[in-house]
Amino acid sequence: MNKAELVRQVAQRAGMSQASVNNVLNALTATITRSLAEGEAVRIPGLGTFGTRVVKARVGRNPSTGDAIDVPEKARPTFKAGAEFKDRVSLAADGPA
Questions:
Q1: Which strands make up the sheet holding 48-55, listed edge to edge?
Q2: What's the number of CA atoms in the CB half-sphere (13 Å) around residue 32?
Q3: Would residue 9 be called left, alpha or beta, if left means φ above 0 and alpha means ψ between -120 and 50 degrees?
Q4: Which has the closest alpha carbon to 5: 23, 21, 28?
Q5: Which residues are 60's β-sheet partners?
Q6: Cα distance from N-terminal residue to C-terminal residue, the chain
Q7: What is residue 94's predicted lDDT score, i.e. its pLDDT?
Q8: Contact 50, 36 (CB under 8 A)
Q9: Contacts for 47 with CB less than 8 Å, ≥ 6 apart
Q10: Closest CA to 50 of 75, 32, 66, 70
Q11: What pLDDT, in 10s, does the model give residues 70-91?
């Protein structure tokens, strides 16, 4: 499912216009991104938790030349699915084919 399909389906379920849902989705994405950039986790009950994980600095290799390169420490976004979300996905996967 791409963003346009997601917007269309949410608009149908919520009885909203696609433009409104698109604006809400953009605002949600921007808010989550900003919160993570500021080091704050975002918890959505029934869905999961967006957070960050720091990947330590290390020495890597250039695949073309084999030369050592320094890879700096950086924060990576993470998502931990909540129990309810996992259960619903598991039940959907276990259903009839």
A1: 42-44, 48-55, 74-81
A2: 17
A3: alpha
A4: 21
A5: 69
A6: 19
A7: 72
A8: yes
A9: 81, 82, 84, 85
A10: 32
A11: 999 999 999 999 999 999 998 8
